[in-house]
């Protein structure tokens, strides 16, 4: 099992150009399966070619009993299907035992987002007279202005910024690149932060220098961004369920509320499939009414 897993992860890295986060997730999923199979077979882990549908049904049943979220179970099943599909290609699996297993039905929950007014309060919270406050404002403005994932934000380098064109180059999921427009507020916040960063003795240099750094001059982490956001949510009294990804949700929701078409929002978010973007079509009734009255010839 270990050898097959190693070869599969190498395949993801080299041939599929998967991100390190994706590779890590697949590795953890397969390690969890190996642990279950070892316990189920009295300390002996079977070869991947010996794993049957019944083995996987027992594994999935155990995940349900342990209280795992349906989204987690669905992701693990996706990992197993990919793994055994790779085994068929490599010749060590005659069939894919994970293929007959159905994903659990996931509840369709609407993404959490902030109103325009609440976002305005949040973006004004970082102090404009402190270096780290300017950094924090630059981060929050950029996430919201460009609709970035937090991993895309922390991955930004100086060479990715094009203030003249008003865009940033973003490396998204699957290492797909896109150009994301940024507005005047984010541009101004970024310029102010970069001017302050230059005064630091630990300022990074070179085109691959990270845009956002911690107090030691190293690239800031996604966890740090989440902690920083949490601090400003407490200060402003805003909903503490809000995460960095909620700012991306807010970006998409506000665009659609103001009449942007869904395919444009799909491109801006870097979604591969339009189905992923459609969850954001929960625009407000007021917004729908406004669009209706503006567009329908006999609305008024």
Main sheet: which strands, in order across?
1-2-3
Q: Tell me the number of helical segments per DSSP (H or I, 4 or more residues long).
A: 13
| CATH classification class of the largest domain | Mainly Alpha
As a whole number of angstroms, the C-alpha radius of gyration is 23 Å
Distance separating the two termini: 68 Å
CATH architecture descriptor name of the largest domain: Orthogonal Bundle
Please tag this protein with its features.
single chain, 300 residues, mainly alpha, DNA polymerase, domain 1, hpI Integrase, Chain A, three-stranded antiparallel sheet, 55% helix, 4% strand
Structure in words:
It is a single chain. Helix 1 (2-14) packs antiparallel against helix 2 and helix 6 (131-146) runs antiparallel to helix 8 (184-198). The protein folds into two domains: 2-90, DNA polymerase, domain 1, CATH 1.10.150; 116-293, Orthogonal Bundle (hpI Integrase, Chain A), CATH 1.10.443. The chain is globular and about 65 Å long. By secondary structure, the protein is mainly α. Strands 1-2-3 form a three-stranded antiparallel β-sheet, with no helix packed on it. It has helices spanning 2-14, 20-40, 53-65, 70-90, 116-124, 131-146, 150-154, 184-198, 222-236, 244-257, 262-269, 274-277, 285-295; strands spanning 161-162, 167-171, 177-181. Helices cover 55% and strands 4% of the residues. The longest helix has 21 residues, at 20-40. It has 13 helices and three strands.
């Amino acid at each position: 099992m270990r050898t097959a897993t190693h070869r599969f992860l190498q395949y993801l890295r080299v041939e599929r150009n998967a991100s390190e986060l994706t590779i890590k997730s697949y590795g953890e999923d397969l390690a969890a399966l190996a642990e279950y199979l070892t316990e189920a077979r009295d300390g002996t882990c079977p070869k991947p070619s010996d794993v049957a549908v019944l083995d996987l049904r027992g594994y999935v049943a155990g995940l349900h009993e342990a209280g795992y979220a349906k989204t987690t179970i669905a992701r693990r099943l996706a990992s197993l299907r990919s793994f055994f599909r790779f085994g068929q290609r490599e010749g060590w699996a005659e069939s894919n035992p994970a293929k007959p297993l159905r994903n659990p039905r996931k509840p369709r929950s609407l993404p959490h987002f902030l109103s325009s007014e609440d976002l305005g309060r949040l973006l004004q919270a970082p102090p404009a007279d402190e270096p780290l406050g300017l950094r924090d404002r630059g981060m929050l403005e950029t996430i919201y202005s460009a609709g970035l994932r937090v991993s895309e934000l922390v991955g930004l380098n100086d060479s990715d910024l094009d203030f003249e064109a008003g865009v940033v180059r973003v490396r998204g999921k699957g290492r797909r690149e896109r150009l994301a427009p940024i507005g005047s507020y984010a541009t101004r916040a970024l310029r102010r932060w970069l001017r302050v960063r230059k005064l630091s003795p630990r300022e990074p240099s070179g085109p691959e220098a990270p845009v956002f750094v911690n107090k030691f001059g190293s690239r800031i982490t996604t966890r740090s961004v989440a902690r920083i956001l949490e601090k400003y949510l407490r200060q402003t009294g805003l909903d503490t369920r809000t995460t960095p990804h909620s700012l991306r949700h807010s970006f998409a929701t506000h665009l659609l509320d103001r009449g942007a078409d869904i395919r444009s929002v799909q491109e801006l978010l870097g979604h591969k499939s339009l189905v992923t973007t459609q969850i954001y079509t929960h625009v407000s009734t007021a917004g729908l009414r406004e669009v209706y009255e503006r567009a329908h010839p006999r609305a008024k």
